[in-house]
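Working notes for the structural subgroup meeting. M.R. asked for a predicted model of this chain before we commit to crystallization trials. I am recording the input and output together here so anyone reviewing the notebook later can reproduce the run.

Input as submitted:
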Amino acid sequence: MRLIDADIMRENLEWCKSQSGRYNDIYWDDVIERLDVQPTVDAAPVVHGRWIYENDDPSMIPCSMCGYQVFRYNNTPYCPNCGAKMDLEEQDAQTDQPGK
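Returned structure, recorded in token form:
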């Protein structure tokens, strides 16, 4: 599943309708109406963190958000425990809170 901005999609569909000619107006109106009645989803905001390399155990690295540790060479772009996206740089780390 991909989350999209439905308002921008509506604008794009309106533009397509304007380019298609009069004989397709009913079709485009149906498409736009279907967009407007689609269900919404609850999306969680992305949590950003980083792997902390400067710790006591050089073979394990903890997540800066939850403290979960993985083997140094098995680190992933997301924490397998809390789901934090590991894209913070060290200078951005002031905002991450270990154990929360």
